[in-house]
Write a structure and sequence with these properties.
By secondary structure, the protein is mostly helical. The chain contains 20 helices and two strands. It has a two-stranded antiparallel ribbon. A hairpin with a 2-residue loop joins strand 1 and strand 2. Helix 5 packs parallel to helix 13. The longest helix has 29 residues. It starts with a helix and ends with a helix.
Length: about 425
């Protein structure tokens, strides 16, 4: 009955101020969300629209209806929506950073191919006689594994010098110089290529050792360079794949040693012809490196590469002293670096041991057919290459290095059992 009385007084004009205030607040609460969204979505229309001035009370100045609705603070009203801002278009990674243009150089694949071929040749030379250890023992009177030990010892010594030499001379000079050194080492091992009769001009064992040392000292400039090449020439989505390809392509060299060595080096004449082929291919690779290999692309492939190039240009010349020991200690103190390094050492140690002793181990297991042994050794190396390239592409996509490393280690442990 009280509500009917208030309604009658409201409709007949005898309503109370409290009832008018309640009705007005209800109406404003319903209209405020629409007014807020409208003024935010169409600010120019809200600013230019003709609206009859309105007073909500005698104490308030005359304002437009939209302004009045938005000014009225109601406890149940939604706050005005912020104006929607148009999202700026995405910045293309291959456009420019500041005034420096960014672009992927198609010549990057030539650089990767040259470095991969040099890595292949270096391990082909190291494991050249791995498929024919008995023939090598008959010809030279020494175990084939001795040259592998000499090669790896020279390799380790040269690794300590790589960082400082590369920083001082640049990518092209060190890779070209190492390719030339490797060609010279192969020439020492083979003698003058394709001179007859082969058995009379096959170099003595001392020349074989000297040539092996030269190739072993050259290899780090192919094996340690892929991360630098990838950072200089490749975009961020290609770097892990490019690095894995170049680093693991030396395994193709070991596979080549199993196949080509197993087919050619079954006699003294065949051994010499085999070494001649290796020397000629190394000379051709050195010539291709001198002609085609470059320090860096004309335009950096990414912002990080551009920043690194600018920092290198502004940096003073490197000091004439070895910086590698200090840098190596700093890296070993970095969290996670020691574990990753230990994983790499374990993996490369296992693969080198298996590669060096595949033939005698399979022979002791009863596999006497030479071609089957060669195919088994080559298959092991190709599995390493394909696994490295595949996992490199996977890491390029998901950037989950730790999970990939742990999965590889776990699969290796399970395979042993």
């Amino acid at each position: 009955r009280t509500m009917r009385g208030d309604l009658a007084r409201f409709t007949t004009g005898t309503h109370s101020p409290a009832l008018i205030s309640t009705a007005r607040n209800l109406m404003l609460g319903l209209l405020l969300p629409f007014a807020s969204g409208y003024s935010a979505a169409t600010p120019r229309l809200a600013a230019t629209a003709r609206v009859t001035p309105l007073r909500l009370s005698n104490a308030e100045p005359a304002v437009s209806g939209l302004q009045a609705l938005q000014r009225k603070a109601l406890p149940f009203a939604r706050p005005p929506l912020a104006p929607r801002r148009r999202r700026p278009p995405p910045v293309c990674s291959a456009s420019k950073v500041g005034s420096v243009p960014l672009a992927l150089d198609p010549h990057r694949w030539v650089q990767l191919g040259i470095l991969s071929m040099l890595a292949l040749l270096s391990d082909w030379t190291c494991f050249a006689t791995v498929a024919v250890p008995s023939e090598w023992m008959t010809l030279e009177g020494h175990d084939a594994a001795e040259l592998i030990d000499i090669f790896l010892a020279s390799n380790v010594v040269s690794c300590f010098l790589f960082t400082d030499i590369a920083a001082r001379l640049g990518l092209k000079k060190v890779v070209t110089g190492a390719a030339t050194m490797m060609a010279g080492g192969c020439l020492l091992r083979s003698g003058i290529p394709f001179v007859e009769p082969a058995i009379e001009v096959m170099p003595g064992y001392g020349w074989e050792v000297a040539g092996t040392i030269l190739v072993g000292m050259a290899q780090p400039f192919f094996q340690c360079t892929p991360p630098l090449l990838s950072a200089t020439w490749f975009g961020s989505s290609e770097r892990a794949l490019a690095t894995a390809t170049a680093i693991n392509f030396n395994q193709v060299g070991i596979a080549t040693a199993f196949i080509v060595g197993g087919l050619m080096a079954n006699s003294p004449e065949g051994m010499h012809a085999y070494f001649d082929v290796l020397a000629c291919v190394s000379i051709a690779a050195a010539a291709a490196t001198a002609l085609l290999f470059r320090d860096r692309p004309e335009t950096p492939p990414s912002a990080s590469a551009a920043a690194a190039a600018a920092e290198l240009a502004a940096a003073p010349p490197p000091a004439p002293r070895l910086e590698y020991p200090r840098k190596a200690l700093a890296l070993l103190r970095s969290p996670g670096f020691g574990v990753a390094t230990a994983s790499f050492v374990a993996s490369i140690g296992c693969t080198n041991v298996v590669s060096a002793f595949t033939a005698p181990a399979l022979a002791r297991a009863g596999l006497m057919d030479g071609m089957q042994i060669d195919l088994a050794g080559a298959g092991f190396q190709l599995a390493i290459v394909l696994g490295g390239i595949g996992l490199g592409g996977l890491v390029d996509r998901n950037k989950n290095f730790k999970l990939v490393i742990l999965s590889c280690l776990l699969s290796s442990v399970l395979a042993r059992h």
